[in-house]
Specification:
The structure holds two protein chains of two kinds. Chain A is 71% helix and 0% strand. By secondary structure, chain A is mainly α. Chain A is elongated, with a radius of gyration of 19 Å. Chain B is mainly α. Helix content of chain B is 74%, strand content 2%. Chain B has helices spanning 2-21, 26-47, 67-87, 94-112, 116-134, 140-171, 184-198, 207-213, 216-226, 228-240, 245-265, 269-286, 291-311, 317-322, 327-341, 347-357, 364-382, 389-393, 398-402, 407-423, 433-454, 468-487; strands at residues 51-54, 62-65, 325-326, 386-387. In chain B, helix 8 (207-213) packs antiparallel against helix 9 (216-226). The longest helix of chain B has 32 residues, at 140-171. Chain B starts with a helix and ends with a helix. Classes of the chains: A mainly alpha, B mainly alpha. At the A-B interface, helix 1, helix 2, helix 3 and helix 4 of A face helix 5, helix 6 and helix 22 of B.
């Protein structure tokens, strides 16, 4: 329960960071915080019924964790990583003409 | 059949990568990939029996291919083919065609799947491919518009993921049907993701800037098919679960009215079209049972209109009114505008009648207002001046009037507009006197209002809601709204 509360707090903090941080790089980092929260939520839910890795072995140690959410969230981690990489590449290009990288300034110059 | 389906899903990605290896064959290969989808969709209509695939166990991938998906897949194939034909004579690099095909493949995957995780993966791939297409010109503005798109869609999909795991928590499965019995917050979170991705209602206000600032072929792809990848899952959820149905219909009416409200005041051609997309998606959602046909006609028309807007000498309506366009171009523009206003003999008419017949009583007023708004906003296009080709030859339209009106442009137009005419026979029951009179009256009233009021009107609506921070902030408000709707 407490774990879940902290996970949701992470997601919320990330979300508010995206809104309230002015710098584009900070916004991207906030998005990463938010996605870390989401990943943690999957892991917490997977471990509801047991903690052990579900690997077939001779001796059963205890209740297994649910492998499905963990497998699913691996995809998200990979996708999240690639999106971050793409975004930061875009930010590098933008930084040449907008050194402060404040979104309000970029919008002023790039919104018709 | 199973193998064929799997091959069809994988093929666009394979061709996309193959284009990198054989850059000389980029255009034919890309066109082949799009036409395969058209053939596959045709086969879905002929077979009529839905294909239901369940790969792995109950938590694995599940696909459903029925005539409803067939309409969307056909749209995807035709629009992609038209865009490739349009770009045939341009100097686009193989990278562009490869990304187009990967986008095509991810849209196909999103249309076929019926579980939340496959949908998530398809939507993310689609987001990345769209981003790469938007930033293709590599100007600062293109990069900013692309970043903004990727940011908004990624944040929405993070909410969506939380919703997906809540569904899993309730049912140990990610299937769409799991939405029944899932907690209301799961419905709210998943719908937030889909509404943002689909560009619907206030969550969709990222769409006008993105669609209007991209290059025309990319705008055509985005408005024609990309947003529909998130709309079909909404339609499917509404059809599967009767408790979801009212939510989807309410959003349908809301977005239909909101979109035309912006569109009638707009003076920029591409922004009118983009706001109009927001509105037309509402027609698809307002009557989920018949949304497929509407999606097909809207996809064809909107792609054609964006491609035409790309070769017009200016984007500003004021300048266009003083600068006549060549008559053939005007005819294409008029056919597309007539179809989307619901004029008989074109498929937009059948689709509108079909949608109007399937509305619930409380939706009728809203949708009629939206139809009227459509007629008003397209009167702006229909009444643009035009001149014969030889007359404009000597005038001040040097490079633009000649080069883009190439064979490729007309091939794309004949594909899209021909599709409109052919598709109009799908629903020939619509041709009764009452059905014909009503759209004509709507169009006449719309034109009247255009000449009397909107032609002179110069109100510029504030764009504050389209600023980046507000787009993200509005997600939290939409989330609260959706939560109460799901709870009710």
């Amino acid at each position: 329960m407490i774990l879940e509360a902290f996970v949701f707090l992470t997601i919320l903090l990330g979300f508010f960071g995206i809104i309230f941080k002015k710098n584009l790089v900070m916004k991207i980092i906030s998005m990463d915080v938010m996605s870390t929260g989401v990943i943690a939520y999957y892991v917490v839910l997977a471990a509801r019924e047991g903690l052990f890795t579900p690997i077939v072995a001779d001796a059963q140690k205890g209740a297994y964790a649910d492998p499905v959410p963990q497998a699913v969230i691996l995809t998200e981690i990979v996708i999240g990583l690639s999106i971050q990489a793409l975004m930061l590449t875009g930010v590098m290009k933008l930084a040449q003409n907008n050194p402060t990288l404040e979104t309000s300034e970029i919008e002023k110059s790039d919104m018709p | 059949m199973t193998n064929l389906t799997l091959l069809w899903i994988a093929l666009p990605f394979l061709i996309g990568f193959l284009i990198y290896l054989l850059p000389r064959l980029d255009r034919p290969l890309a066109l082949f990939g799009a036409l395969v989808s058209v053939a596959y969709a045709a086969q879905l209509f002929i077979a009529r029996s839905p294909i239901n695939l369940r790969l792995l166990d109950h938590f694995g991938v599940s696909l459903l291919l029925d005539p409803l998906a067939g309409f969307f897949i056909l749209t995807n194939g035709l629009v992609t083919a038209a865009v490739i034909l349009y770009c045939w004579g341009s100097n686009k690099t193989p990278f562009f065609y490869a990304q187009t095909l990967i986008l095509h493949g991810s849209v196909n995957a999103a249309l076929a799947c019926t579980d939340f995780i496959s949908l998530y993966v398809a939507l993310e791939v689609l987001g990345i491919a769209t981003f790469l297409l938007i930033v293709y010109p590599r100007s600062d503005r293109a990069i900013w518009v692309g970043l903004r798109y990727l940011f908004v869609s990624n944040v929405a999909l993070l909410f969506y993921l939380v919703g997906a795991v809540l569904v899993y928590k309730a049912h140990h499965s990610f299937d769409f049907v799991g939405l029944r019995g899932a907690p209301p917050e799961a419905v709210a979170l998943i719908f937030l993701g889909l509404l943002v991705k689909g560009g619907i209602f206030v969550s969709g206000l990222w769409l006008p800037l993105t669609h209007s600032e991209s290059e025309s072929p990319v705008s055509a792809l985005m408005s024609g098919v990309v947003v529909k990848a998130a709309v079909l899952p909404l339609v499917r959820c509404a059809l599967l679960l009767e408790e979801i149905d009212p939510i989807v219909r309410i959003f349908g009416v809301g977005t239909a009215v909101l979109g035309v409200f912006y569109a009638v005041f707009e003076k920029d051609t591409k922004r009118i079209l983009a706001f109009h997309t927001v509105s037309q998606l509402g027609f698809i959602l307002a009557a989920p049972e018949v949304g497929g046909f509407y999606a097909l006609t809207h996809g064809l028309v909107k792609a054609a209109l964006f491609l035409i807007a790309g070769v017009l000498p200016s984007r500003n309506l004021k300048e266009l009114q003083s600068q006549p366009m060549p008559t053939p171009l005007w005819i294409a523009l008029a056919i597309a505008s007539f179809s989307i206003s619901g004029f008989p003999l074109l498929s937009g008419f059948g689709a509108k009648v079909l949608t109007m017949e399937n509305l619930l009583p409380w939706q009728v007023i809203g949708m009629n207002i939206a139809a009227l708004g459509t007629a008003i906003s397209f009167a702006k296009f229909i009444f643009l001046p035009h001149k014969r080709q030889e007359a404009t030859e000597g005038l001040a339209l040097p490079s633009q009037s000649r080069s883009p009106l190439s064979v490729g442009f007309w091939a794309a137009m004949s594909l899209l507009l021909g599709g409109l005419v052919v598709a109009s026979v799908v629903y020939y029951d619509a041709y009764s006197l009452e059905n014909i009179v009503k759209p004509l009256a709507t169009i006449a009233l719309g034109w009247l209002l255009y000449w009397v009021i909107f032609r002179q009107l110069a109100i510029k609506l504030p764009r504050v809601l389209e600023e980046f921070d507000h787009l993200i902030g509005f997600m939290s408000l939409s989330l609260i709204l959706l939560f109460w709707m799901a709870l009710a």
